Prior knowledge:
The chain has helices at residues 3-43, 70-79, 91-113, 125-131, 134-137, and strands at residues 48-51, 54-66, 140-152. A three-stranded antiparallel β-sheet has the order 1-2-3, with helices on both faces. It is α+β, with helices and mostly antiparallel strands. The relative contact order is 0.18. The protein is 55% helix and 19% strand.
Amino acid sequence: MNTEQIKEFVRLEKDKRRIESELDLVEKKIKDLKEILVPQFLAANCQHTNMDGRTVYVHTDIRPAMVNGRDAVVTALREEGLDQYIGVNHQGLGAYVREIAREVEDTIARENAANPQEQHRVFAEEDVRAALPGKLRDEIAVIFKYDLRSKQAN
Length: 154
């Protein structure tokens, strides 16, 4: 057996464990900072900012939730002529709600572009719910799950 290769293997294993330990610590610090920063972004009506060559932004995961149960949602969908969203799974309805949310977000983004930063607003659950067809507004709650992310700035 080649002892040099075994030594390298052992060294790499030790390095891997050290790096994984450091990564765990970094991920915990990032999680803690997200919990602090997301509410600050939302309170400031700030969707994104640039810092040190990165764009830091609020990512929103949007999900519908049934308020009064499946039967009430099915009835509301039928009354609004949205039978195509009645099915076994939640995915079609979720996609429909997210599509409406994108339209609302685009409208708010256009409004924000026409106003100074201090007048900007981040779209919220209420904005999406208000854009739903009338019968669905009472049967669907719109749930936002916020996350803070970053990407290379342009």
